[in-house]
TrEMBL record:
PROSITE patterns: PKD. PANTHER family: ENDOGLUCANASE, LIPOPROTEIN. The lineage of its organism: Bacteria, Pseudomonadati, Bacteroidota, Cytophagia, Cytophagales. Keywords: Signal. It comes from Hymenobacter psychrotolerans DSM 18569. This is PKD domain-containing protein. Gene3D superfamilies: Immunoglobulins.
Length: 612
């Protein structure tokens, strides 16, 4: 016991001497006139920050809401605010989650509150990188289809342009005599156009999954809570819930954490270097008693066994705390972001909280490396924070005005530096392998089929394919592709390439020769020169000086195999010296063209020509 105590004291001394994070800046936005609230917070490829949420406005029944996007630069300065008006007959509309897509667009999910049915209905919106709407449409789910639970980071972008979405969808009435719907955890896969590929419901009523996290084995971890009643008559209590699924929505494992008398809620999950998971959330020792919550850390090994857990002590009686995000840092610490009541009498509003913990050694509790609070005493912590690879942490919060008579809530952004660089798992350690089979039903036709094998790690699946048929055509983006070549193009030596991408965003390219390989170059391609190549308009086809074979017939084709020109033959019996044929491309559009060479008794050959 003495040794463990000395070890803990030694760790505390070492950690207290380490560098503390620095608050680089803090920005506030708004005029305290209406409530402006972020539900999510993301970073774009352009390095801009985007707050996703809503703004309130006066309405017939009190205060309606209007969806809102706010764009910031990396110093927290406001660049642009976009607030599309709600559709007719819509009392309120908001965005509660968003994600940046691979092409730079933003996909948003939110809800409408309809005046005539008094329900929140899900909707999808896709914008460009500055918030201009490309399309918006309802997201109709079976059952009641009412949006019950909204969480930030509920959207995960996929490499094929689609997304995974988790939401607590209201499935049906809570009892035969009641029309009040109850929530059930629902996961939806959407394609790049926002259409539903599949949807699954998990657990039982009164459940919600808040976060989707891709794992190195190709699966996905989701966490949240499942509320149950021990004997169907007592009040509901919540258990922390960890679910793992594959891209098809199949359940790989499902586990609950908690007891019948307490409330446990999980708000974040992230992979660890040893193949395990780090989770965080909040814990209430006695459910339904008004007891304050405590921030909760939980570490699992690669088999799902619990290694350790830790509850954040509250600063005083009646004070509460919760952890909303956690990251594993490269130095092994666990960084958390959340909220904590200040140790101030008569102040109960949560304040932003950031801290780092050193995981415990055997038998010892974790050691607090450092902690700090941010925002005014009247602030509420945001549900999402951004940790950059360089160790900069950006957090957001909303807060009530310090102005007498003002009634709105505004937005605050705070940047901390030197919090620690995050551990980033190598999702492509086991990359996919491009494999294919081919059939040639006709001399100039090809049927290509990408095989299902070689997707990468155990639970990975291929989601994108791209074929390059070697003739300058646009190619194909399906697992099975059919292609028709121009006359004479489908020959030995023609290279076809396939690039496959799995659901983790890992890609691999392989080359194939479906018509066989060439041992040597064709003598015909060596017999002529084409210059300049590429050309801006005019070119010359010249017969090589040493060529003494039969006449070579020349014809020009475009990339689709259509003959464009028939030119005089070069050489032939009695031909002496070098002969030239002008090639005029001025009237043709820029692109790839083929010069077909033919002599009697020999296979035709092709020379590539590029018009700029």
């Amino acid at each position: 016991m003495k040794a463990l105590l000395l070890s803990a004291l030694l760790w505390a001394a070492i950690l207290s001497a380490q560098a503390q994070p620095t608050q680089a800046w803090q920005q506030t936005h708004g005029a305290f006139v209406v409530n402006e609230i972020f539900q999510d917070f993301i970073r774009l490829k352009s390095n801009r920050l985007v707050g996703i949420g809503f703004s309130q406005f006066p309405s017939a029944t009190g205060r309606g809401t209007q969806p809102m996007l706010m764009f910031f630069n990396n110093a927290g300065d406001s660049l642009r605010t976009v607030m599309p008006p709600p559709p007719p007959q819509t009392e309120s509309r908001n965005y509660f989650a968003g994600t940046a897509l691979s092409n730079g667009d933003i996909l948003l999910v939110g809800s409408n509150y309809e005046q005539n049915i008094y329900a929140s209905l899900l909707h999808l919106t896709r914008t460009d990188s500055i918030g201009n709407i490309r399309w918006q449409r309802p997201l109709n789910l079976p059952g009641y289809g009412w949006a019950y639970g909204f969480t930030s980071r509920a959207l995960l972008a996929l490499p094929d342009g689609g997304t995974l979405l988790t939401v607590a969808d209201s499935y049906g009435p809570s009892s035969p005599s009641s029309l009040t719907p109850v929530p059930i955890a629902t996961v939806v896969r959407l394609d790049s156009a926002g259409a539903v590929v599949w949807q699954r419901r998990y657990g039982s009523f009164h459940g919600n999954l808040e976060v989707i996290q891709a794992l190195p084995d190709g699966s996905y971890a989701l966490c949240g809570y499942q509320r149950t009643s021990p004997n169907q008559t007592q009040l509901l209590t919540g258990n922390g819930w960890l679910l793992r699924i594959n891209l098809a929505g199949d359940t790989l494992s499902s586990r609950y954490f908690g007891q019948q008398v307490s409330d446990e809620y999980l708000h974040d999950v992230t992979p660890t270097p040893d193949g395990g998971l780090q989770l965080c959330g909040e814990y209430v020792p006695q459910a339904n008693t008004g007891q304050p919550a405590q921030g909760w850390l939980l570490r699992l090994d690669s088999l799902g066994n619990e290694l350790w857990r830790h509850y954040l002590p509250n600063p005083a009686a009646g004070k509460s705390s919760l952890f909303l995000r956690n990251w594993v840092l490269q130095d092994g610490k666990v960084l958390v972001s959340g909220a904590r009541d200040p140790a101030v009498v008569n102040v109960t509003r949560l304040r932003g909280y950031v801290a780092a913990w050193q995981p415990p050694t055997t038998g010892a509790p974790p050691v607090l490396a450092w902690e700090t609070s941010y925002g005014p005493l009247s602030s509420n912590a945001g549900t999402n924070s951004l940790l950059d690879p360089n160790g900069d942490l950006t957090v957001y919060h909303s807060y009530n005005p310090p102005i007498v008579g003002a009634s709105g809530r505004d937005i605050g952004l705070t940047r901390f530096t030197n919090v620690g660089q995050p551990y980033v798992p190598d999702l492509c350690r086991t990359p996919p392998v491009a494999r294919a089979t081919f059939a040639t039903p006709a001399p100039d036709s090809l049927v290509a089929q990408a095989t299902a094998a070689g997707a990468g790690p155990r639970h990975a699946q291929l989601v994108a394919w791209h074929w390059d048929f070697g003739d300058g055509s646009p190619g194909a983006s399906t697992a099975t592709a059919r292609h028709r070549y121009a006359p004479g193009v489908a020959r030995p030596g023609l290279r076809v390439t396939l690039t496959v991408t799995n659901n983790l965003g890992c890609a691999h390219t392989e080359s194939f020769f479906p018509f066989g390989t060439l041992a040597t170059r064709s003598p015909l391609t060596e017999a002529i020169d084409v210059f300049p190549n590429p050309t801006a308009g005019a070119a010359t086809v010249r017969l090589a000086g040493r060529y003494a074979g039969p006449a070579i017939r020349l014809s020009l084709y475009d990339a689709l195999g259509r003959q464009l020109q028939q030119m005089p033959a070069l050489g032939g019996t009695g031909a002496a010296g070098v002969r030239e044929v002008p090639l005029r491309l001025q009237a043709l559009p820029a692109g790839l063209y083929w010069l077909r060479l033919e002599v009697p008794g020999q296979p035709p050959a092709l020379r590539r020509l590029l018009k700029q």
